[in-house]
Design goal:
Layout: E1 2-7, E2 10-13, E3 18-26, E4 31-39, E5 46-52, E6 57-59, E7 67-72, E8 77-82, E9 91-102, E10 105-110, E11 114-119
Parallel strand pairs: 2-11
Antiparallel strand pairs: 1-3, 3-8, 4-5, 4-9, 5-6, 7-8, 9-10, 9-11
Length: about 120
């Protein structure tokens, strides 16, 4: 089992920045991908950003140019720097990690989430 603990959420005004962090712990074999999902009130989960162990990244169109994902493989930690926040970014942000034993055996985990509220 892998445990994910997020931190860094809060209440900010539009245009301000926040940095989210997520630490993975537990029985870790090889975390090949980490990332962030978010769920706004009344909406489905949305992949915000993802980073693979080699450094490749993916972003939702809505956050490109404003958010930056990074990770520290030595600490099993992923970060999400969120700049120029908008009220539409208001959501619960959950960390994601894929723990691989080998190419055909892996498990996906998601943390409980941290709330981000952006006021106008």
């Amino acid at each position: 089992q892998v445990r994910l603990v997020e931190s860094g959420g809060g209440l900010v005004q539009a245009g301000e920045s926040l940095r989210l962090s997520c630490v993975a712990s537990g029985t870790i074999f090889n975390i090949t991908a980490m990332g962030w999902y978010r769920q706004a009130p009344g909406k489905q989960f949305e992949l915000v950003a993802r980073i693979r162990s080699g450094g490749d990244t993916d972003y939702a169109e809505s956050v490109k140019g404003r958010f930056a994902i990074s990770r520290d493989n030595t600490k099993n930690t992923v970060y999400l720097q969120m700049n120029s926040l908008k009220p539409s970014d208001t959501a619960v942000y959950s960390c994601y990690a894929r723990n691989e034993v080998d190419d055909s055996h892996y498990s996906d985990y998601r943390g409980p989430g941290t709330r981000v509220t952006v006021s106008s």
